[in-house]
Amino acid sequence: MPHIKVTPFETAKLDRLVATDPLFDFRAVPHNPNRETSPIELLGVEMEGERFVLEIHKRQGAYLIKPDKPTRPLDVNRIKRTLRYLAHAAELNIEQDNIALSSTKPPLAATYNKRIEDFESPDFGGRSIAIEVGFGSGRHLLYQAKAHPEVLHIGIEIHTPSAQQVLKQIQLQGLSNVWIVNYDARLLLEMLPSNVATALYVHFPVPWDKKPHRRVISEPFVAEAMRVLAPKGVLELRTDSDHYYAYALEVFSQRERVQFEVTKNHEAAIRSKYEDRWQRQGKNIYTLRLIAEEESPEISREYDFSFDRPLKPYDALLALPKEAIIRSDHFVHFERRYRMVTEEGVVLKCSFGSFDRPEHKLITVRETQAAYYPQAPVRSMTNSRAHHTIGAFIYA
């Protein structure tokens, strides 16, 4: 990930940039500065219309500046341009960096790189859609896009390097019917309208045998998949794991009025390099296809994630509980607290929402106004309930 390692400097010099340069939004320092694992500072930035956060760490007699993982853009060159601009504007002495701009970045990548907010009111151009969750190298996703040019293929991948590589391939192969989303698929499904997809592929997900709650296949995921799929649409799971196969079979079987097919060692039209390896090792490959039988009703996502009541004083916000607040169907955890430097304000680093697919956001509080940063959470019922719990702790 792009970063710069610079000679230590008085970070107060960044105050001038925050005050005068629209690229910089805020500077904040930890409320508990003795915690060595915390960044010593946060710097909110907005580059080319996208907001994210830079972290400043102390590392072996130098300062390391890098993007905050939950907010970082998929466009690596955008991060590099931001770090280059910061180094120049603040006159930093760079000791080490990896911010050389890549000339191989596809010029049209932004066209196919979709953010979660693009799905608030998605426009699929009248096309049917197929979805692939966790596309990895993209071999199957790209094959399907070329084989079915009339279909819009949405690839969802939480692993950033994989998403970046497939974006390059989209440009190199001249495809125009693929969208890439670098996000948690379980959350994105909740954003999609009902009855819009003809297929939803989940090929060789991580088995998570020791942490089954992290598996992408679950009863809530399957319920969302059946809602998103049009009648006769198919949820296709392929796995080389005997444990995952047995687990998925149980989840699928628990649904009422269900129709699904199971095959073993079925020859796929396109295989990943890992599947080639597993077949050479003599491992079984299981394919489970769950078929949507009926049309699903549309659901409302009219949730309000604004903070519309008077807030507690800054000192009280900095003293919010450190322990996670657990409810029956959601949680809220105020993980870290920061104090703004250039103005009166507080930044709260939070995780919240569902136990198996939490959101990670900052909440900025200044001039008695609070807002999620860099954008509001996914509009799900669980997140809405978590939002109300957050309000119960930060409202006066």
Question: How does this structure look, described?
Answer:
It is built from eleven helices and 19 strands. The longest helix is centred in the first third of the chain and has 14 residues, at 76-89. By secondary structure, it is α+β, with helices and mostly antiparallel strands. It has three domains: 4-97; 123-190 and 192-291, Vaccinia Virus protein VP39 (Rossmann fold, 3-Layer(aba) Sandwich); 314-394, no CATH class. Strands 1, 2, 3, 4, 5, 6, 15, 16, 17, 18 and 19 form an eleven-stranded antiparallel beta sheet that branches. Strands 7-10-9-8-11-12-14-13 form an eight-stranded mixed beta sheet, sandwiched between helices.
Write the layout of secondary structure elements.
Layout: E1 4-6, H1 14-20, E2 24-30, E3 41-47, E4 50-59, E5 62-67, H2 76-89, E6 94-97, H3 109-112, E7 113-114, E8 129-133, H4 139-147, E9 152-156, H5 160-172, E10 178-181, H6 185-189, E11 197-203, H7 219-228, E12 229-239, H8 242-253, E13 259-264, H9 273-280, E14 286-291, H10 314-318, E15 325-326, E16 331-340, E17 345-353, E18 358-366, E19 369-373, H11 381-394
Parallel strand pairs: 7-10, 8-9, 8-11, 9-10, 11-12
Antiparallel strand pairs: 1-5, 1-6, 2-3, 2-16, 3-4, 4-5, 12-14, 13-14, 15-16, 16-17, 17-18, 18-19
